[in-house]
């Protein structure tokens, strides 16, 4: 299997553009390499290259959800219309194309809290089949294939199995709703005028609002969000997830997913951070000081 890297994703992007008759003579700018490779193209276009060809249905759902969210006045980046979007290349790659949120930056915690409150009030779309949100299986599948010491792999798989058992018996204080699935500030873009737009809709599903909120709680624990900022997030949303009965288990699932995702990346800095995270997960140590990627 070909490793997913910036150069391989660029080959997929160039193939998609060539097949659509788009001129990509200048080099696009890599914005982010993660679950997708995000590239900035000329004329305010953002391209998201999926990690593998089996993500086509997920990409289709993301484009359909963006249209639905816009219809319900939920701020969202708009997909490019009147093209094959998502586009599947002849080689099997999957690319979606979006209008860039102009002059944007990641949202503030208070903006994130307010936008999540708005999203969680929306009705479920009748024309899109939403998956269940929040599961250990994604982390478990990654843990089986990423580059880890076998002792660490076994310990994390055991932790995943324990968390899955706990997850099945959780109780919640909030009602189920549509959730973003990866609701951190970098997935909610904000303009200087305060306009917002959700991006990265691959994880949108039906589940517990706590699943979205727990990410900011983790970022607070890591030290990426200050006391003041976390208070603003809670005030904007109207609920403090860190006091929720489900928080510890959802936090554990998120930490496994964050670590298994990072373990897919090949860089030396990423590998060192994975080693630190694995030690903390195995020992139950504090996560303050984990590095953001």
Task: Describe, in plain words, how this protein is organized in 3D.
By secondary structure, this protein is of the alpha+beta class. The protein folds into two domains: 95 residues, Phosphorylase Kinase, domain 1 (2-Layer Sandwich), CATH 3.30.200; 175 residues, Aminoglycoside 3'-phosphotransferase, Chain: A, domain 2. The chain is 43% helix and 13% strand. The strands form three sheets. Strands 1-2-3-5-4 form a five-stranded antiparallel sheet, sandwiched between helices. A three-stranded antiparallel sheet has the order 6-8-9, with helices on one face. Strand 2 and strand 3 form a beta hairpin. The chain starts with 5 loop residues before the first helix and ends in a 10-residue tail after the last helix. The mean pLDDT is 93.
């Amino acid at each position: 299997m070909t490793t997913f890297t910036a150069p391989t994703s660029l080959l997929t992007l160039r193939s998609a553009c060539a097949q659509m008759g788009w001129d990509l003579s200048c080099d696009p700018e890599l914005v982010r390499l993660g679950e997708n490779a995000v590239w900035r193209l000329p004329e305010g276009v953002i391209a998201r290259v999926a990690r593998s060809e089996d993500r086509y249905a997920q990409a289709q759902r993301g484009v359909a959800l963006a249209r639905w969210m816009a219809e319900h006045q939920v701020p969202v980046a708009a997909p490019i219309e009147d093209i094959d979007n998502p586009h599947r290349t002849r080689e099997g790659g999957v690319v979606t194309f979006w209008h860039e949120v102009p002059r944007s930056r990641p949202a503030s915690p208070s903006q994130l809290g307010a936008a999540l409150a708005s999203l969680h009030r929306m009705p479920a779309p009748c024309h899109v089949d939403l998956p269940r949100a929040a599961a250990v299986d994604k982390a478990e599948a990654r843990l089986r294939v990423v580059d880890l010491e076998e002792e660490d792999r076994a310990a994390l798989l055991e932790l995943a199995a324990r968390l899955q058992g706990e997850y099945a018996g959780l109780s919640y204080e909030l009602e189920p709703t549509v959730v973003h699935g990866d609701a951190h500030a970098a997935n909610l873009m904000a303009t200087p005028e305060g306009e917002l737009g959700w991006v990265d809709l691959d994880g949108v599903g039906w589940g517990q609002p706590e699943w979205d909120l727990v990410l900011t709680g983790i970022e607070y624990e890591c030290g990426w969000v200050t006391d003041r900022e976390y208070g603003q997030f809670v005030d904007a949303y109207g609920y403090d997830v860190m006091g929720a009965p489900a928080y510890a288990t959802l936090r554990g699932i998120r930490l496994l997913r964050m670590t298994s995702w990072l373990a897919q990346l090949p860089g030396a800095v990423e590998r060192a951070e994975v080693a630190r995270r694995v030690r903390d997960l195995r020992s139950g140590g504090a996560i303050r000081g984990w590095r953001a990627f």
